[in-house]
C-alpha cells in the first residue's frame, strides 16, 4: 500500500489530466439530452449545415455542440467507428442514438421519478477511461473503472472503518479521482483518513499547488446522481436513506468484480448504451456482458472448408459464400480482387513452416530495446470481430500445406460452436488476451476468457492433391463443415475454354482436354480424384495461341510430371502413363512440347482423339 508521503510526492510530477477526466463542456444530463435531440434532428434532416452551425442556429442557449462528447459518456449516443478503433474523430454523421435515448425520448417530462431513475442508472455507468476519451490509450490508459461504484465503496469504507461520512473537494481531487481501479478503494480510504490525521502538519502551500493543478469537473457529472449529496463546498457524502440500497448494489458489483474489470472497449460501451443497470447486467440469466445487445451482433459464425482438386474454383466459392452475407448485411458484393482490401476480411495462405506464433502473434524486439506484440491473423480477426457487430471473415488458404493442429494449438477448443455461432468453450491465453485487450491490467490478463464471437467466420480451402503434406486428424476435421468442389462444369456455360494446340495438326478445347486427363487419371492410372485437375487449374484470359502454349507448359506440365505421372511410373503393376515412356526427364518433356511434338502416351492420345470426335 502506498504511503501518504509517497502519494503526495508522486502527484507533484503527475500531469493535470492524469486523473478522472471529463471534457470541459456541459455535464447536466438533461441539457446534454436536449442537445442530443437537436443532433438527431440535424442527422435525420440531412442538413447541409455543419453540426456546429446547426446547433448555433437552434433555440438552445449557451450550449456548445462539443458537449455531445458527454452524450457518449452518458450512453445517449454511440459511435462504433471510434469504439472499434477504425476512427479517432467523433464524426457525428455516423454516430447513432441508443436504446437509452429512445427510452428517454418516450418519457413524459412530468414523470420526474422515471427520469430521475434513468439519470441515476446512466451516471452510475460512467467509465474512465472509455474509448471516446482521446487519452484512453495514453495518459489515462491505466484508469480502468466505473467511477460511481468506486466512490460508493470509498464512502462506505470511510464510514464503517474510520467513522468519516464525507469526502472534501480537496480529498476528492488528491485521492479519489487519482484512483485507477476499483480494487484500490480501501487504499484510497486509508489515505484520506491518514491525510485528515496529518493535515495540519502538511505544507499548505504545497497542497494548494497540487489541488490547483488538477481537474475537478467530475463533481458536475455526479451532481446528476440522486444517491449522492454534494454541498456548496463540493464535499461529497451518501444520502443516508440510500445507504442500504447502495450496499446492496455494491454486493452485486463485488460479486462480479472480475468481469467488470475485464471488459473490452465494446463491452463497456454496450453496458453504457443499454437500458440495463450496471448492477444487474451480469445477473440477467447470468449472461456475459457481450450479449447485452446480442440482437445487434450478427450470429451464425461457422467453420467451413471448401475442398477439391486444384483449380476447381474454391476461391471463387469463398467469394460467393462471403457475398451471401455481404449482400444481406452491407447491401453490396465483393470481388476476389477486392477481398484483401476489405477491413472485415482477413486472408492468409498457409505454408509448411507456418506456425502458431505466425497465426496468433508473438513478442518481438524493437529498435529501442523494448518488446512489442506483433499480431497474427487470428488475433487481428478476433479483435476486430469483438469490436464490431458486422460479420468478420478469416480466410485460411491451403490449410493442408501446414500442420493445422499445431498452428491452432490451444485455439482448437474454440472451434466448437453454440447455436448462435459463438464458442461453446473458452480458453485462458494470457498472450492472446494481452494482444487483443491491451486496456486490461496485467493482473487481469490471466483471468480473461477468450471465445470466438458469433460474427466470426473461419473459412478454409484444402487442395485434395496436397492432403498428404500434413494430414488433418479426425477431431480437427469434425469441427468444420466440408464443402466439396467437383471438377465438373456445365460445358454449355463454361467460358474458360480456349482451343489448345497439343501438337502439330492436333487441336482440342480445354474442357475436353482436362476432362480426358481426369478420366485417364482415375480409370487408367488407378489414382484417386485427388490428383485430378479442375476447370480453373489454368485461368487463360486470352485466345493468343502463344500465350496459351506458355501457360500449359509452365503451369500444367510440371504438376502432371511430378505429382501424377511419377506415381504411375513407379507403380510397376500399371502399364499406362500420361506421357510417352520414351521421355525420361522433364527437360526432354519441356523441349518436345515447345517443338510441338506429341508428348503424351499412345493410350492418352487415343483418348484425346476419341473425345474430340464426340
What does this structure look like?
With 614 residues, the chain is an alpha/beta fold. The chain has 26 helices and 18 strands. The radius of gyration is 33 Å and the shape is elongated.
Helix content: 40-55%
Give the strand content: 5-15%
From the helix content, strand content and strand pairing, which structural class follows?
A: alpha/beta
Strand count, sense and barrel status of the largest sheet are: 5 strands, parallel
What is the approximate shape?
elongated
Overall CATH class of one domain = Alpha Beta
What is the number of beta strands? 18
Rg, Cα atoms, Å: 33 Å
The whole-number mean of residue pLDDT values reads: 87
Biggest sheet, spatial arrangement of strands: 9-12-15-8-16
Number of helices: 26
Q: Which CATH architecture of one domain would you pick?
A: 3-Layer(aba) Sandwich
CATH domain topology of one domain = Rossmann fold
**Unreliable sequence segments:** 284-294
Pfam families: AAA_5, RE_AlwI
GO molecular function: ATP binding; ATP hydrolysis activity
Protein name: Type II restriction-modification system restriction subunit
Amino acid at each position: 500500500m502506498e504511503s501518504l508521503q509517497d502519494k503526495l510526492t508522486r502527484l507533484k510530477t503527475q500531469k493535470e489530466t492524469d486523473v478522472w477526466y471529463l471534457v470541459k463542456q456541459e455535464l447536466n444530463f438533461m441539457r446534454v439530452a436536449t442537445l442530443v435531440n437537436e443532433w438527431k434532428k440535424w442527422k435525420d434532416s440531412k442538413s447541409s449545415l455543419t453540426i456546429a452551425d446547426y446547433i448555433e442556429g437552434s433555440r438552445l442557449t449557451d450550449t456548445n455542440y462539443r458537449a455531445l462528447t458527454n452524450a457518449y459518456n452518458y450512453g445517449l449516443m454511440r459511435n462504433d467507428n471510434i469504439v472499434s478503433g477504425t476512427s479517432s474523430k467523433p464524426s457525428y454523421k455516423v454516430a447513432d442514438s441508443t436504446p437509452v435515448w429512445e427510452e428517454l425520448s418516450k418519457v413524459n417530462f412530468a414523470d420526474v421519478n422515471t427520469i430521475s431513475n434513468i439519470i441515476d442508472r446512466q451516471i452510475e455507468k460512467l467509465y474512465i477511461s472509455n474509448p471516446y476519451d482521446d487519452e484512453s490509450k495514453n495518459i489515462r490508459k491505466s484508469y480502468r473503472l466505473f467511477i460511481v461504484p468506486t466512490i460508493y465503496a470509498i464512502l462506505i469504507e470511510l464510514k464503517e472503518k474510520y467513522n468519516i461520512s464525507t469526502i472534501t473537494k480537496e480529498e476528492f481531487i488528491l485521492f479519489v479521482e487519482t484512483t485507477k481501479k476499483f480494487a484500490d478503494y480501501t487504499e484510497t480510504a486509508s489515505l484520506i483518513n491518514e491525510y485528515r490525521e496529518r493535515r495540519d502538519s502538511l505544507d499548505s502551500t504545497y497542497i494548494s499547488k497540487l489541488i490547483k493543478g488538477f481537474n475537478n469537473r467530475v463533481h458536475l457529472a455526479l451532481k446528476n446522481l440522486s444517491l449522492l449529496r454534494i454541498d456548496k463546498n463540493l464535499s461529497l457524502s451518501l444520502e443516508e436513506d440510500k445507504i442500504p440500497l447502495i450496499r446492496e448494489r455494491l454486493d452485486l458489483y463485488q460479486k462480479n468484480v472480475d468481469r467488470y474489470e475485464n471488459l473490452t472497449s465494446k463491452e463497456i460501451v454496450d453496458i453504457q448504451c443499454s437500458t440495463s443497470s450496471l448492477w444487474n447486467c451480469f445477473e440477467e440469466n447470468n449472461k456475459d456482458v457481450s450479449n447485452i445487445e446480442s440482437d445487434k451482433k450478427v450470429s451464425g459464425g461457422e467453420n467451413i472448408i471448401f475442398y477439391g482438386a486444384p483449380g476447381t474454383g474454391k476461391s471463387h466459392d469463398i467469394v460467393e459464400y462471403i457475398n451471401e452475407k455481404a449482400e444481406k448485411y452491407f447491401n453490396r458484393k465483393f470481388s476476389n480482387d477486392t477481398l484483401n482490401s476489405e477491413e472485415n476480411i482477413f486472408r492468409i495462405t498457409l505454408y509448411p513452416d507456418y506456425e502458431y506464433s505466425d497465426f496468433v502473434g508473438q513478442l518481438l524486439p524493437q529498435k529501442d530495446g523494448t518488446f512489442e506484440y506483433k499480431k497474427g491473423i487470428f488475433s487481428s480477426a478476433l479483435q476486430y470481430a469483438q469490436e464490431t457487430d458486422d460479420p468478420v471473415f478469416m480466410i485460411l488458404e491451403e490449410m493442408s500445406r501446414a500442420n493445422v493442429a499445431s498452428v491452432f494449438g490451444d485455439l482448437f477448443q474454440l472451434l466448437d460452436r453454440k447455436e448462435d455461432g459463438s464458442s461453446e468453450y473458452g480458453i485462458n491465453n494470457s498472450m492472446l488476451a494481452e494482444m487483443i485487450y491491451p486496456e486490461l491490467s496485467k493482473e487481469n490478463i490471466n483471468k480473461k476468457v477468450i471465445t470466438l464471437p458469433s460474427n466470426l467466420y473461419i473459412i478454409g480451402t484444402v487442395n485434395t492433391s496436397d492432403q498428404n503434406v500434413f494430414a488433418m486428424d479426425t477431431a480437427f476435421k469434425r469441427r468444420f463443415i466440408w464443402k466439396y468442389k467437383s471438377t465438373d462444369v456445365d460445358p454449355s456455360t463454361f467460358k474458360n475454354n480456349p482451343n489448345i494446340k497439343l501438337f502439330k495438326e492436333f487441336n482440342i478445347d480445354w474442357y475436353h482436354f482436362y476432362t480426358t486427363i481426369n478420366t485417364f487419371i482415375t480409370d487408367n492410372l488407378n489414382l484417386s480424384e485427388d490428383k485430378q485437375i479442375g476447370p480453373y487449374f489454368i485461368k487463360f484470359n486470352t485466345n493468343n495461341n502463344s500465350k496459351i502454349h506458355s501457360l500449359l507448359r509452365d503451369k500444367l506440365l510440371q504438376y502432371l510430371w511430378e505429382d501424377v505421372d511419377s506415381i504411375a511410373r513407379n507403380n510397376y503393376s500399371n502399364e499406362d502413363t500420361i506421357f510417352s515412356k520414351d521421355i525420361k526427364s522433364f527437360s526432354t518433356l519441356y523441349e518436345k512440347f515447345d517443338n510441338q511434338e506429341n508428348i503424351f502416351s499412345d493410350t492418352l492420345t487415343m483418348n484425346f482423339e476419341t473425345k474430340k470426335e464426340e
